[in-house]
Amino acid sequence: MSRNVVISGGGTGIGLAAARAFAADGDRVLLLGRRGDVLRRAGVPGALTHAADVGDVAGARGVADFVAAEMGAVDVLIHSAGGSGRHEPRPERDEPDPLDEVADDWTAAFRINTLTAVLLTEALRHRLAEPGGRVLFLGSIAAYRGSGSGAYAASKAALHPYAHDLARRLGPHGITVNVVAPGYVEDTEFFGETMSEERRAQRIAETSTGRAGTPGDVAATLHWLASPGAGHITSQIIQVNGGAERGH
Questions:
Q1: CATH code of the domain occupying 4-246
Q2: Domain parsing of the chain, residue ranges
Q3: Is 144 tagged catalytic?
Q4: Who's near 134: CB < 8 A, 6+ residues apart?
Q5: Nearest of 139, 151, 160 to residue 240 by alpha carbon
Q6: Is the peptide bond before 91 cis (omega within 30 degrees of 0)?
Q7: Per-block mean pLDDT, blocks of 10 residues, the chain (248 long)
Q8: What is the pTM of this model?
Q9: For residue 49, what are the contacts with CB-CB under 8 A and spacing of at least 6?
């Protein structure tokens, strides 16, 4: 039976890989993202697209209105929007101050990685299928190991208690909530042009499998967690990092 699947950050990387996996099963997929042209080029058969910034209340409300008009119920909600960069330039100031920059960076990280997930979930919460609905968040190995600056890692770690609370709220309605936490994944926009060969080799050496992750690795885990076979799995953080989180 075809399901309605909503994926934020669905135009690239892990979100796009997940969209293709669900579409291949005959599910109806809605791709969300800030860049409409990227969504249209994604090439997912039969997919709907809607451009919106779901880190903004108006954007999340717009998605809810679109879903109500075009889909109705949501069987699977996947939060793949996020990143380690910024969506807007830093605010201009006459006298730049390092403390202001710290505040800007942390605010941006939580808006991009935490608020996007929270606002979209709350906007669509009453449209989740009962029973059988699935809410899936993209976390990160950084939530356990740090990310250098701390802001990105903290914004991903913040998803853990939200997911646990949400699982308790939605469990009585037959809806599960889980977080998938990838490690180093190639073929995404996450690192941009910043990944050196030395750094890549170091990341791979940290794994027990001896290879980088792929968007397909994470998409397959999301697809399984959305299946009937995973119906008694909820409030979990699923690691997909080749063992790197355990360290070497």
A1: 3.40.50.720
A2: 4-246
A3: no
A4: 75, 76, 77, 175, 176, 177, 178, 225, 226
A5: 139
A6: no
A7: 95 97 98 96 96 97 98 98 74 80 94 98 98 98 89 97 98 98 88 78 94 97 98 98 83
A8: 0.94
A9: 11, 30, 31, 32, 33, 36, 39, 40, 42
